[in-house]
Design goal:
With 88 residues, the chain is mainly α.
Length: 88
């Protein structure tokens, strides 16, 4: 079975089960995934999501936000002026 055939049979429920298996390291019946199975499941989930979900709904998506010209992040705190350490 090639990747296109595999992705054609996947649906959201199967992908959800694969994601859970990757997260907890076990199949729904309690058997432990091998390292190879975990890797294959992860690749299948990523490939399916890339074809079927918008970017914001995919696993691992990080919203980087957008800033206008000259706008600073909320967490930006100016560095205090440098003060040398004085030993007494």
């Amino acid at each position: 079975m090639n990747i296109e055939q595999m992705l054609a049979v996947l649906d959201p429920e199967i992908v959800s089960r694969l994601k859970t298996a990757v997260e907890i390291g076990k199949w729904p019946n309690g058997l432990v995934l091998t390292a190879e199975q975990r890797q294959i499941c992860m690749q299948a989930v990523i490939a399916w999501e890339a074809q079927n979900l918008p970017e914001k709904e995919r696993s691992g998506y990080i919203d980087k936000g957008h800033k206008e010209e000259g706008e600073e992040c909320d967490s930006h705190v100016p560095e205090p002026e440098f003060q040398p350490i004085r030993f007494v």
